[in-house]
Amino acid sequence: MVLFPNPVLDLLTVSPEIFTELNPTGEIQIFSMDGTLMSQKTISLNDHQIDMSALPMGYYAVTIQIGTITEQHLIYKN
User: Fold this and answer.
1) Across the strands, what pairs with 50?
2) Residue 1: closest CA among 15, 12, 11
3) Whole-angstrom Cα distance, residue 26 to residue 44?
4) pLDDT tens, 19-76?
5) Residue ranges of the domains in the chain?
6) For the whole model, what pTM was predicted?
7) 20, 31, 38, 51, 76 from 9: Cα distances, Å
8) Is the predicted pLDDT of residue 18 greater than 80, yes or no?
9) Which end of the chain is more exposed for a tag (fewer CB within 10 A), N or C?
């Protein structure tokens, strides 16, 4: 899975090609470095961005689950 841009200013985008007919939706969660859940959203082919504009500058752990696949990424918020 590809997340961009990194670093992010406001909208974090999940590459839309990861969605399939069998897995049309997924979940994205954003955690602070101390493990606090900061944001959570259901994503899909038509809605694959999450707004990070209200979050303070710093590093965040992003977990994405689509079907049986779960990935974690480190994102920097400017």
Assistant:
1) 12
2) 15
3) 6
4) 888 888 999 999 999 999 999 999 998 899 999 999 999 999 999 998 888 999 999 9
5) 3-77
6) 0.90
7) 28, 16, 16, 9, 9
8) no
9) C
